């Protein structure tokens, strides 16, 4: 409507911006989680390859230095995988926090939008009543004018 101006429009815009920022935060955390899970899968695959290699070393000539180096490398990869799994837990906690922030921001936007919708409906009702009163007044004047012309005055 042309004449309607919502008094809390700036607050609504602010809350929408906060909600959008919260959505981006959730998306970032979800993306980080996906990256970490991919890295964990890579580490698991690397560990499987190392274990397969160790099996082939045991079938041939055994080099103690090679076995020790591979064992150290396996331990290092397992530690990296454990660190990544710990980070997944931390990111999951952060993701839950961000989802709660998003939920709260979304509720706040919906609450203000409801206020805006009610204010708009009130404005429309008031405007409709004003137009109806104006039309009634015009109709009354026209009716009075028609009666006067029929009477010959």
From TrEMBL:
A UniProt-annotated Pfam family: FliJ
InterPro entries linked: Flag_assembly_chemotaxis_eff, Flagell_FliJ
Topological category with respect to the lipid bilayer: Peripheral membrane protein
CC annotations in GO: bacterial-type flagellum; plasma membrane
Protein localization: Cell membrane
Presence of the UniProt keyword Protein transport in the record: yes
Keyword list, A-Z: Bacterial flagellum biogenesis, Bacterial flagellum protein export, Cell membrane, Cell projection, Chemotaxis, Cilium, Coiled coil, Flagellum, Membrane, Protein transport, Transport
A biological-process GO annotation: bacterial-type flagellum-dependent cell motility
Coiled coil regions in record: 102-129
Entry keyword annotation includes Cell membrane: yes
Family statement: Belongs to the FliJ family.
Protein known as: Flagellar FliJ protein
Organism: Rosistilla oblonga
Lineage: Bacteria, Pseudomonadati, Planctomycetota, Planctomycetia, Pirellulales
